[in-house]
Fold:
Amino acid sequence: MKKKVIKLKNKIIKNIKRVKEEKMISSYFKDNRLFLVYVLVCVLNSTLLRIFTMPTMENYLSFKPIIADLAVVTIIGSFSYLLKGKKRYLYLLICAIIFTAICTINSAYYTFYTSFASVSMLSLTQYIGEVGDAVVENVLQIKDLVYIFPLLFFIYYYHRLVKKDRYKIYTKEKRIKKFKNTIITGGVILLLFVVSLSSLEISRFVKQWNREYIVMRFGIYMYQGNDIVASIKPQISAMFGYDDAKKEFNEYYQDRPNEQDYTNEYTNILEGRNVIVIHAESMQDIAINRTFNGEEVTPNLNKLIEEGLYFNNFYSQVSVGTSSDTELTFNTSLMPTQNGTAFVSYFDRTYIATPSLMKEKGYYTFSMHANNADFWNRRAMHNSLGYDKFYSKETYDVDKENIIGLGLSDKEFFAQSVEKIKNISEEHNKFYGLLITLTNHTPFSDTDKYGEFAVTMKTTVTNEDGTEEEIEAPYLEGTKLGNYFKSVHYADEALGEFFNELDKNGLLDNTVVVLYGDHDARLPKSEFNLMYNYDPVTDDIKDEEDPTFVEYDSFDYELDRKVPLLIWTKDGAVKGQVDYTMGMYDAMPTLGNMLGFYNKYALGHDIFETKYDNIVVFPNGNWVTNLMYYNSQKGEYKLLKDSIIDENYITENNDYAEKLLNVSNKAIVFDLFNPNSEEQAGKAVSKEN
Structure:
């Protein structure tokens, strides 16, 4: 009997505890409704961001970024409990607005750059006005406004609580207690997250250059906080980290072979000739030799390719600086900086650049671009690269009639530039010049000014009665990709007219023309799928069961971002097609071997020496060789040839890519090409102390 009483007593006590716990939990949710909704809203938005920007099954199932975002949101929100009533709501509202803005900005930014935003890019906001149409048409999309709705729900929910008198007002003692409990909870969540991290994840978080990888594993809020630290770090490290940077720099170049010791069939083959470099805005390789109903997109460029030396496996290596990054890499064989852009943040550094080396050989150097001289800070940076003169917008006749897209049309730009080049040739024995085009810049919306060029598909179909009929299906009409091909066709016409005018004025007789696409056009991947799998009968994408259906994945999209590189002379001194995998940083040493100059600090190589052993490293850590394309964010790759890859091959190339990116960044940040950099670093440290 006694045992039964004890059992009954224990059971009653247990039930009482359970009821108390349930009441405590219920009471907590009732008393902290607004805080919990704030947490839910912020974590939901960060999750939506990853889904919209990186829609992979791995990302959907990953709890790490959710835990990281939950920890950050909880810890920051915990301070609201130190405030009274409405002030607590205002604090949470401000936090929610900031977190919402982070998601919205990064969502829009990722659409255009396939990367996440950095506070170091705030210095570039001054250029948004120049490309306003491109931002509106290409960057801002409906999905970028989704993040606002959870925020609006948070505001609505607060007013609902107040209206029903359910918004809890705490005493000072309770506020402090709730603050302590909440921040401790956030700290525990953060600790659990940190314990789950691998050494590789921690290493990449510290280095920050692989942004997509960090957001996938650390969440957007922790990424953004780390980005603030990383953006400030170069300014601090430039004063205190010089010795380590210089040591790493010296060791890196000490281990590299001296490419000045070799010669090949192209050595000095173009030495002494004038040089005209054409920076072809957003020109992609997909436009080359492409036809619509038998009409070529780039007939003039196709002709030049047949007559010159064409590199058909050439990749741009830009980061957020787009065109300016290309100019940096093409001229210096360095990579874009990890934070900010060299043109804006590091324009005052010393660079070993092609224009300055050509000046040493007795050339007059110039650049031409019918845009604002201060856009991308070109006025200052072109001087640092060694150009004697920059012919910018103020030197061109620009009126409404000759504007297409962002500025002066390519046809008018080339026509006016020919006159300038003619005057230069009369005043100087040898010249090296860069011409930057503009018309083929996104958003490709001035289709009425591009001229007649249809991106339709004509085909013959058999009717039910057995008769055949030719139809013209819309195909790419009305798509951004279709408008891009129309724009490229116009740019190609302008290029043809330019060559004709140069020839008429005798400016091609002793001249080598170099043309490169500065970067891809940021075209929608879905429209590539339409291009490769269009069914003119149904006016839709083919069914995946169709035997002619072409599988098109993210790797194919990356590989399609190739740009053209052409070296052409009127007398055919160099011609042929080069299949080696090549990057923008290989252009300087390859041209240097032909023109007779050398930069021992070039990160790239003369492609005719490395040949099939070459590797192209991208700013985000991805790389491509003749064997494979490797995505460092996902740790996945696509074989480009039927071959067996040793695991060491990937490890060695990853190490190579990491060292190259670090050395390039430190060389620019610490001004290591400046013979007085050590003295300047010492003065900076002394000043701080």
The CA atoms of residues 533 and 550 lie 6 Å apart.
